[in-house]
Design goal:
four-stranded parallel β-sheet, 376 residues, binds fe (ii) ion, Rossmann fold, 12 helices, 11% strand, alpha/beta, 43% helix, binds coproporphyrin III
């Protein structure tokens, strides 16, 4: 008997992420990969390309995923979890299909996937499941044995995600001039998505009124605001969930208000300062570095409004530990045990298996790692 925590039946973990360009020549091909068949206006693409060129054509997301990989491997090793960790992306090298092919070549047949998106939505959940189905179809066409791939549950309300975010919010408050700290508002931000996609996010029974996407973000915002209240003793600090990084055609409704409009509105109401808290994101990637640190920060400067931006969890060891807990929890569930399923807030732990109709696509396509998966 070994007293090492068991990750059986899983034999590998796959970090599944978005990917990003690593130099100026990568930017246009990367954007073509992202937007293939998705009808994003050319104007928006040129603009987003410029965001990347401002940073030398390099997205921070790949280095951040490399750091997360190291943190996961360190944590697993320290805790005796002998699960190898691989990394594959939707839109840039290392591409998911290549990684999955390597995993099969290395003998892995039960794979657990961790996505760098903590919440339910088509873009953050089902689209990754579609990418997994595409990769499995490619391996099948090559005549390779197919691994079974499961996906870890959404972790937005896990303490290993929420606690570092709350601490980062307090740290950002501490970077504001002392005299505006007590009165500073909190602006929790996440990626805007079409309201139609928000309304149908998560399982069907929660559809409508922003669906699981908005409900989950509101729960995290409340938890962080409450932690800040406890720590600072400021009882009625205003906070709001706002959105950023809108794209798509202007006549299609997306979640609002935009962070920049929100800064203007609270300035007009007399807010002395704002802390921007990007709860929607797992690392300080381009949406954070450009849309918040560059664009929203410039807006705030124009308004004469002091702002600070909270760090995302990134490769925080507490987040790596949370991933380990979630992996061991899911492994135990797959073995037929009933492990403790840790979650803060009012929503409870999210489902392990996306039910049929969860975060539907506009045009149905095969998606793996869910109840409607065509794969085992
Ligand atoms: C919910 C959500 C997340 C959070 C969850 C998650 O992390 O998955 C996210 C993350 C990210 N989005 C990213 C980049 C882009 N997203 C785009 C486009 C879009 N995102 C959408 C949603 C989301 N996106 C949507 C509804 C679109 C429009 C249509 C479509 O394509 O579905 C476009 C095209 C141009 C534009 O429209 O801006 C780009 C370049 C990067 C990489 C950043 C880097 O390089 O550091 C990351 C992590
Ligand atoms: Fe995006």
């Amino acid at each position: 008997m070994s007293d090492q925590p068991s990750h059986a039946p899983y034999d590998a973990l796959l970090l599944l992420s978005f990917g990003g360009p690593e130099g100026p020549d990568d930017v246009v091909p990367f954007l073509e990969n992202v937007t293939r068949g998705r009808g994003i206006p050319r104007e928006r693409l040129k603009e987003v390309g410029q965001h990347y060129f401002l940073f030398g054509g390099v997205s921070p997301i790949n280095d951040q995923n490399r750091a997360l990989l190291s943190a996961l491997r360190e944590d697993f090793a320290a805790c005796g979890v002998g699960l190898p960790v691989y990394w594959g992306n939707r839109n840039w090298a290392p591409y998911l299909t290549d990684t999955l092919r390597q995993m099969v070549a290395d003998g892995h047949r039960r794979v657990l996937a961790l996505t760098t998106s903590a919440y339910a939505s088509y873009s953050g959940c089902r689209q990754y499941r579609e990418n997994l189905a595409d990769a499995l179809a490619a391996l099948e066409a090559e005549g390779l044995p197919l691994p079974r791939v499961d996906k870890l549950r959404h972790y937005f309300n896990h303490p290993g995600f929420v606690t570092p975010m709350a601490e980062a919010t307090l740290a950002a408050l501490g970077r504001l001039p002392e005299e505006v700290r007590a009165g500073a508002h909190l602006a929790f931000t996440t990626h805007s998505i079409p309201t139609a996609a928000a309304d149908t996010s998560g399982p069907a029974e929660g559809h409508g009124d922003g669906g699981a996407y908005v409900a989950e973000h509101l729960d995290v915002a409340r938890l962080v605001a409450e932690a800040v209240r406890k720590e600072t003793g400021v009882e009625d600090r205003p906070w709001r969930l706002v959105y950023q990084s809108r794209s798509g055609a202007p006549h299609i409704p997306w979640l609002e208000p935009d962070i920049c409009d929100h800064l203007e509105a609270v300035r007009a109401e007399g807010a002395p300062a704002v802390v921007m808290v990007p709860i929607g994101f797992v690392s300080d990637h381009m949406e954070v570095k450009y849309d918040l640190d560059t664009e929203a920060a410039a807006k705030a400067a124009e308004l004469g409004l002091p702002v600070a931006r909270a760090a995302t969890v990134g490769a925080d060891p507490r987040f790596a530990a949370a991933v380990r807990e979630l992996v061991l929890e899911r492994a135990a569930t797959e073995r037929g045990e009933r492990p403790e399923r840790c979650a803060l807030g009012s929503l409870g732990p999210s489902h392990d298996l996306c039910p049929v109709g969860c975060c539907p696509a506009r045009a149905p396509r095969p998606a793996a790692a869910g109840a409607d998966s065509p794969y085992a």
